[in-house]
Design a protein that fits this description.
- This protein has about 425 residues and is α+β, with helices and mostly antiparallel strands.
- It folds into three domains: about 120 residues; about 150 residues, Beta-Lactamase (2-Layer Sandwich); about 140 residues, Histidine kinase-like ATPase, C-terminal domain (Heat Shock Protein 90, 2-Layer Sandwich).
- Strands 4-3-7-6-5 form a five-stranded antiparallel beta sheet, sandwiched between helices. Strands 8-9-10-12-11 form a five-stranded mixed beta sheet, with helices on one face. A two-stranded antiparallel sheet has the order 1-2.
- Helix 11 links the parallel strand 8 and strand 9.
- Helix 7 packs antiparallel against helix 8, helix 7 packs across helix 13 and helix 10 packs parallel to helix 11.
- The chain is elongated and about 105 Å long.
- About 30% of the residues are buried.
C-alpha cells in the first residue's frame, strides 16, 4: 500500500510525463549522432594507421611546398638540405581524397600543405583560397591552435580536442579535432595531420536537452510548491476543523455505547495522524527552513525527521556557512540529500547514513553515504540518466546539477554507496 508521500511524488511526475518523453526522444537522437561521429572518426583513424609515407613536395594546385600527402608519414633524409619522400599507394591517396572526414596537413607555422574535398566543403573555401590560408584562420581563438599544437608535439597525438572554428562565411562551428605530429627521421617536427569533425548540431541538441531538463526541474519545483501550498492552505485547515469537531463529540462520549466511543477515539487518532502527515508532506515538498535559514539548517532538519521516520541513524558533518548560496543552488543540493536518503531507506539495507558538506575555494562537494549492499555494477553503469532502469531519481539529481554546471558521481561496492554532488562556485554567488 502506497503512503501519502509516495502518492504525492506520483502526482508530481505525472504532471511532467510529457517533458520526460520529449527528453528521452532527444537523448536517443543524440546517441545516434554520437555513434555516427564515432564511426566516422574510427574509419578515419584506421585509414590513418594504414598510411606510412608522403608524396612529392607539391600542393594540390601544383605549387612546391614543404611536405604533402596523407595523414601518417615516413620520411628519409638525404643530402644536406634535401628531403626524399617515398610515395604511398594510389588506394591510400584515394581514401584521403574521398573520405567524408575533413582532413588537412599543415606546417609548424600553420601553412596549408594538403587537404581533402571534405575539408573544402566544411569550411567553404576553394582550393586556390585554401592554399593561401594559415591554420589560424580556422580558429575563432587563435591561442587554441597554439595550445593544441603544443599538446600534439608533447603527446605525439591528440584525440577529440574541442575548439571553436569559423568557416569562410564566418559561421561559428564547434569541432572535435584529432591530430598527429609529423616528424622527420631525425625527430624534427615537419607538420601536423588533422581530422576535423563538426559537432555544432550535436552541441545545439545538447543545449536543447539541457533546456528541456531545466524546464522539467522547474516544472517539478513549481508543482511541489503548488502542492505544498494547497496542503498548507487547504487540507490542513480542514483537518484542524475536523479535529475541533471531534473534540466536541469527545465531550459527549459518555452518552455513546462502547462501540461508538471506540470509533470516536479512533477517528480522533486518525485525524491527528493525518494532520501530521499533511504537515510533513508539505514541508518535504517545499521546506520552509531551507528558505529561511539556509542549506545546513534545512539538511539538519530533514535528516532529523528522516531518522525519526525510518529508524536510520544519520551522521552529519555540516560546517557553518557564513555566506549562503542562491536559493536554486541550495534547493538543488537539498533535493540530492532527499533523493539519496530515500534510496538508502528503500534499497541499501543500511542502518546508518552520513551527510558531509565540503566548501572549497572553487567548488562545493556534498556527499551522502551508507554502509549498505551497494548498487549492482550493471545498474551503476546506467547512471548516466539514459536508462529508465535506474529510475527518475538519479536522472533528476543529474539534471539539477548540470543546470548549475556541476556533476553527480556515484561510487558503490559491497560495502556501501557514496553519492557525491559537485557544484562549482561562481563569483556572483558569493
Amino acid at each position: 500500500m502506497r503512503t501519502a508521500p509516495d502518492q504525492t511524488e506520483i502526482r508530481v511526475w505525472e504532471r511532467t510525463a510529457e517533458l520526460l518523453k520529449v527528453i528521452e526522444t532527444l537523448k536517443l537522437e543524440l546517441s545516434d549522432q554520437r555513434r555516427l561521429a564515432e564511426d566516422a572518426e574510427r574509419r578515419a583513424l584506421q585509414a590513418e594507421e594504414s598510411r606510412r609515407t608522403l608524396e612529392v613536395l607539391r600542393n594540390c594546385v601544383g605549387q612546391g611546398i614543404a611536405i604533402t600527402g596523407a595523414p601518417d608519414v615516413s620520411i628519409r633524409m638525404s643530402g644536406r638540405n634535401g628531403r626524399q619522400l617515398t610515395g604511398h599507394s594510389r588506394d591510400d591517396r584515394a581514401l584521403f581524397a574521398e573520405t567524408h572526414d575533413a582532413i588537412i596537413i599543415t606546417t609548424p607555422k600553420g601553412k596549408f600543405v594538403d587537404f581533402n574535398q571534405a575539408w573544402l566543403d566544411l569550411f567553404g573555401y576553394t582550393r586556390e583560397e585554401a592554399i593561401r590560408l594559415n591554420a589560424e584562420a580556422m580558429y575563432i581563438h587563435p591561442e587554441d591552435l597554439h595550445r593544441f599544437q603544443r599538446e600534439v608535439e608533447r603527446e605525439g597525438s591528440v584525440r577529440e580536442y574541442g575548439v571553436k572554428m569559423s568557416s569562410k562565411r564566418g559561421n561559428e562551428m564547434y569541432c572535435l579535432v584529432s591530430s598527429t605530429v609529423l616528424r622527420s627521421a631525425d625527430g624534427d617536427v615537419l607538420g601536423y595531420q588533422t581530422i576535423i569533425h563538426d559537432i555544432t548540431e550535436l552541441k545545439r541538441a545538447d543545449r536543447a536537452l539541457r533546456q528541456l531538463n531545466g524546464r522539467l526541474v522547474r516544472s517539478q519545483d513549481e508543482e511541489r510548491r503548488r502542492l505544498a501550498r494547497d496542503l498548507h492552505d487547504g487540507t490542513a485547515p480542514l483537518l484542524t476543523g475536523l479535529s475541533m469537531n471531534l473534540a466536541v463529540l469527545e465531550g459527549s462520549a459518555h452518552r455513546l455505547d462502547p462501540r461508538a466511543r471506540r470509533a470516536l477515539t479512533e477517528c480522533v487518532a486518525l485525524t491527528k495522524q493525518g494532520a501530521v502527515e499533511v504537515r510533513t508532506i508539505s514541508y518535504l515538498l517545499h521546506p520552509p527552513l531551507l528558505e529561511e535559514l539556509g542549506l545546513t539548517s534545512g539538511i539538519s532538519w530533514y535528516a532529523k525527521g528522516f531518522a525519526q521516520r525510518s529508524g536510520i541513524e544519520v551522521e552529519l558533518d555540516l560546517p557553518p556557512m557564513s555566506v549562503r548560496f542562491p536559493h536554486h543552488v541550495e534547493l538543488a543540493l537539498f533535493r540530492v540529500v532527499q533523493e539519496s536518503l530515500a534510496n538508502v531507506h528503500r534499497h541499501s539495507g543500511s542502518s546508518t547514513a552520513r551527510i558531509g558538506l565540503i566548501r572549497g575555494s572553487e567548488q562545493t562537494t556534498l556527499e551522502v553515504s551508507d554502509r549498505g549492499r551497494g548498487i549492482a555494477k550493471e545498474m551503476l553503469s546506467k547512471t548516466d540518466g539514459t536508462s529508465g532502469a535506474v529510475g527518475v531519481g538519479i536522472a533528476g539529481m543529474q539534471e539539477r546539477l548540470e543546470q548549475l554546471g556541476g556533476r553527480l558521481e556515484i561510487d558503490s561496492d559491497c560495502q556501501g554507496t557514496t553519492v557525491r554532488a559537485i557544484v562549482p562556485l561562481y563569483e556572483e554567488w558569493l
